[in-house]
Amino acid sequence: MSSKFLTELSNDFETLFETGIGYDVIIYAGEKQSVKEIHAHSNILCIRSQYFRTAFSNEWAKKVNGKFVLEKPNITPHLFEMIIRFLYCGNIELKNLQVPDMLNLLIAVDELNIQLLVLHIQEYLIKNNTDFLRQNPCDILETICHQRGAFGMLYDYYIEKICNEPRILFNSNNLTRIKPSLLELLLKNTNLDMEEVEIWENLLKWCLTESKIENDPTKWSEDDIKKIKKSLERFIPLIRFYDIDPSDFFYRVYCFKDILPHDLIHDLLEFHIVPNMKPKPEFLPSRFSKLGSNLLNSQLIPLFASWIDRKEDMFYNYENLPYDFKLLHATNNKFGNSFNATTFHRDCDNKGATIWVAKIQNSTQLIGGYNPLDWNGNCGGKQTVDSFLFNFTDINDINTARVGYVSTSTSAVYCKNDQGPSMGNLYCFNSNNWNYGVNGDCYPQLGISADITVENVEVFQVIKRK
C-alpha cells in the first residue's frame, strides 16, 4: 500500500526556496531602485519549466563564480517570487493581488511558458473579478487583446461581455483612449448588442476626440473634414448603416454627410426613398442582435447556411453568409404564448424557404428543420430532396449537433392547416406536444425522442442574397 505525503513534500521544497541552501541561480528581478536578488536551484527550475531548461542549456544565463545569473527587469520582484515559489511547491495565492498585478502576473507566466498558471489565472479572473471590466474596460481589453493568442479564454470571455453589455465600454470616460486596432476589432464583431446608430455616434465621438475637433459640422473647415474622413476611413465599412432606421438616418447620420463617402450617402438615400430597394451586397450583414432570436447564437446561423448548401468543410462564417435570416414567428410557452398552428401559418405561409427551431422543455436540447419550399396549402406531403432535420443535444455546445437530410423525398414536408412545421416522421401538432416517429425512415434517426414537449419555437425566412 502506498502513502502520499504531498503537503509535507511541498512545504519542504518551499523551505528550500526560502532558505536558499545550495542555490546555484541568481535572478535579478525588477529594475532601477526596485531590483531584488532572488536565489534558486537550477535543477528544480529546469524540471518545472521549459523556459529555464532552455535558458540554462543554451547558456542564455551567464555564469559568475559557478552560478547562473539571469536578469528580468520587466517582472517585479514580488511577482517573480510568487512564480518561483509556485515552481518549488506548486502553490500560489491570488486573492491578495489587485487585478492590474494579476494581469502583469499573467503576462509574466506566459513569457516563462508556465501554462498551468496561464490557465489558472485566467480562470481565477473570470470567476472572481468580473466587476473589474466595468471599472477599467480599456486597460484590461488592451492587455488581453495584445496577447489574445496566449490568453484565449480571457479574451473570449471579456469580448463576449463587452458585446453583451457594450455600454460598459462605450459609455465609459475611457472610450476615447481605445486604440484604433481594438476599436476595429469590436466594430467587426457581429455580436455587438447595441443599436447601430449608437455605434455610429460612439465611433464619431471617438474620432472627433482623436482629431481634437468639436462635434459641430457647421464649424468644420475643409482641413477638419479631410482629417475626420481620414480617421474614419477604416471604420466606415464596419458600420451597418442599412440597419439604421430612416428617422435616425436623417437626423443622426445624414447631417454628417460631408465626412462620409458620397457613394454611401447616395446608396442610403436610394435605399430609404425608393420602394423595395435592397441593401448593396458589399455591406456586412446585420449584427446578430438584429435577428431578434432568443434561441440562437451567432455560431448557428453560419452552420445552418452551410447545411443548406451541403458544405462538408470550409463552413461559412457570419461575414460571408449567402443568406439572410428573418424572424417570422416566435412563441414562448413560459409566458403563456403557446404554439398553435393558426398563428404559425398566418406568419409563415407564402414566405418561401424557412428554417425553424424548437427548444425542448426543461432541457438544453434544440431541434429544428429546413424547408426549402413553403408552408402554405392544406395539401399534405410536399416533395423535395433538399430539406433536413437537426438535433442539438446541448445548444450551448455546437459539437453536439446532428443533421440528417431527407431520404424519402415524397414526404419531406407536410403541410396541414392544423399542424405546425411537420416534416417526414416529425409531427408538430396544434399544441406544444409533438411526436417523432422513431421507426420512420423519411429522415435519419438523430436521437430525438418519440414524445416531446416544446417550450420555444422560432421560424426564420431564408432569403438568398443577390
Short description:
The chain is of the alpha+beta class.
- Work out the helicity level: 25-40%
Q: How many beta-strand runs?
A: 14
> What is the terminal separation in angstroms?
73 Å
| Class from helix and strand fractions | alpha+beta
Q: Any idea how many domains?
A: 3
Instruction: Please report the number of helical segments.
Output: 17
Tertiary shape: flat
* Major sheet: 8 strands, antiparallel
| C-alpha Rg (nearest Å) | 30 Å
Strand residue content:
15-25%
Poorly predicted regions are none
Average pLDDT number? 88
Can you walk me through this structure?
The protein has 466 residues and is of the alpha+beta class. It has 3 domains: 6-91, Potassium Channel Kv1.1, Chain A, CATH 3.30.710; 156-273, Serine Threonine Protein Phosphatase 5, Tetratricopeptide repeat, CATH 1.25.40; 295-464, no CATH class. The chain has 17 helices and 14 strands. Helix 1 runs antiparallel to helix 4. The longest helix has 16 residues, at 196-211. InterPro entries: BTB-POZ/Galectin-3-binding (IPR051481), BTB/POZ_dom (IPR000210), SKP1/BTB/POZ_sf (IPR011333), TLDc_dom (IPR006571). Residues 294-463 form the TLDc domain. Pfam families: BTB (PF00651), TLD (PF07534).
